[in-house]
Design the sequence.
């Protein structure tokens, strides 16, 4: 097990100073001679946070060869060792959870309270995955069930697929890594991880927990950093059997075009929507929609972007949502009570601001927000939005939510489904008949009743339809993606 290149990052500890800003005491031990050094700037402080040495396509090839050789051992390793391994990492993370929360906030400026939630979810996710190791099962097959059959002893078993390439994004730089590498390793695969370059130390520190475990399998996990050339090398290689990617639709399309004959699991985001029906608890709906739209600055694949509201309660709900959003503290992600910090870059904030300006020119009305200060875009609620506006047609990935007035449930469903995405949708209502209809009518991988489409539990199958992707995450379901069925007949 290795991290490539070996000297890509050396950070020794994090401390808290008087202005509540987290800084690294020593940023890097590598030099330009080891490769191109990239500096990570905290999106809020605009000060250096961490550094790493970018990998090259040659490093990626080396990692793949290492994983190929390691698979000879991982596939033969006893399951109890792998279960103990994942549990051990969970225990080690539990002991260091505050440090890991600080790493996340330091690199991507997620509010510290939400970083702690991510770390806790990661711990739970690892333990769920370890428990699923006991259920990597097969079943017997009655081969004499048809006249042309015969009496045999027949069954199938699940076996590890091989080398897994995992590519992860910045918005959940710890837990989304766990969602990929833990199911891969518990299944007996070897892994090459390419985490987001925006959070190099978070992924590095997490990988070290696996490497340093007493149950670790040698060379089972490699970590490489880099840009498109590194990712392309990993995807195009004939060595991997599985590509697991979370990111944008354009990159997902490139992966499917270049991967060749491999198992590909893609989580490509969405354009999450909800319907607030006239019988709904409007106070609850407004409170939850404010969270769903603005948590993590809207940088969530299932961030609530479209709210379709029954015309009978449209103005009342709009006012309540505006009131709820005004309660959210915006600013320094290192402060304990901050709800929303900056976007990952000023470029992302400017892009979202331009989308708002475009919608206003086309007739949308700003209920609240619409203001930008550097990387921070204040929570923005737009009313009088129409179906053809870019701000409802495409994924915003920013703290912007649009209100659309509808006359009926049927109109709401038609508008919600009129999207190339289909990750998760929801509805707020106290009508049981509409709840049952929505379960069948919504064209999405997940349907939530009386809560936001941003709701996700790590134990559930998670993934979408249409452009939202292929395959499912969640330990049990990711294990299925990362294993093969082998059929055995004994006659």
Sequence:
């Amino acid at each position: 097990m290795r991290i490539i290149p070996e000297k890509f990052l050396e950070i020794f500890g994090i401390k808290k100073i008087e202005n509540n800003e987290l800084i690294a005491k020593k940023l890097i031990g590598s030099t330009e001679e080891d490769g191109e050094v990239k500096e990570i700037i905290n999106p809020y402080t605009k000060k250096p946070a961490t550094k790493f040495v970018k990998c090259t396509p040659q490093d990626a090839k080396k990692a793949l060869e290492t994983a190929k050789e390691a698979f000879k051992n991982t596939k033969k390793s006893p399951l109890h060792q792998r279960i103990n391994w994942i549990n051990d990492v969970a225990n080690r993370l539990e002991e260091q959870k505050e440090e890991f929360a600080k790493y996340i906030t330091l690199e991507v400026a997620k509010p510290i309270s939400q970083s702690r939630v991510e770390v806790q979810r990661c711990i739970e996710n690892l333990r769920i995955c370890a428990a699923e190791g006991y259920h990597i099962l097969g079943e017997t097959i009655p081969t004499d069930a048809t006249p042309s059959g015969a009496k045999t002893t027949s069954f199938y078993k699940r076996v590890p697929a091989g080398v897994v390439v995992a590519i992860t994004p910045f918005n959940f730089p710890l837990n989304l890594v766990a969602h990929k590498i833990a199911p891969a390793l518990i299944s007996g695969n070897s892994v090459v991880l390419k985490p987001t370059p925006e959070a190099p130390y978070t992924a590095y520190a997490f990988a070290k927990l696996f490497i340093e475990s007493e149950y670790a399998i040698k060379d089972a996990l490699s970590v490489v950093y880099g840009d498109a050339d590194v990712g392309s090398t990993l995807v195009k290689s004939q060595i991997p059997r599985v590509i697991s990617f979370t990111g944008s639709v354009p990159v997902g399309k490139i992966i499917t075009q270049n991967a060749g004959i491999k198992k590909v699991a893609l989580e490509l985001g969405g354009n999450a929507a909800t319907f607030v029906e006239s019988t709904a608890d409007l106070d609850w709906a407004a409170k939850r929609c404010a969270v769903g739209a603005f948590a993590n600055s809207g940088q969530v694949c299932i961030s609530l972007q479209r709210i379709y509201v029954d015309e009978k309660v449209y103005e009342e709900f709009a006012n309540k949502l505006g009131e709820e959003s005004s309660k959210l503290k915006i600013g320094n992600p290192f402060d304990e009570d901050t709800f929303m910090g900056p976007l990952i870059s000023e470029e992302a904030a400017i892009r979202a601001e331009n989308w708002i300006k475009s919608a206003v020119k086309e007739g949308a009305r700003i209920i609240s927000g619409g203001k930008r200060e550097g990387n921070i875009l204040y929570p923005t609620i737009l009313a009088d939005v129409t179906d053809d506006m870019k701000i409802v047609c495409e994924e915003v990935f920013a703290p912007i939510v649009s209100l659309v007035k509808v006359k009926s449930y049927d109109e709401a469903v038609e508008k919600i489904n009129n999207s190339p995405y289909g990750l998760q949708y929801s509805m707020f209502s106290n009508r049981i008949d509409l709840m049952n209809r929505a379960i069948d009518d919504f064209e999405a991988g997940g349907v939530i009743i009386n809560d936001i489409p941003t709701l996700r539990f790590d134990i559930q199958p998670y993934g979408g339809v249409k452009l939202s992707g292929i395959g499912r995450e969640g330990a049990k379901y990711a294990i299925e993606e990362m294993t093969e069925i082998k059929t055995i007949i004994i006659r």
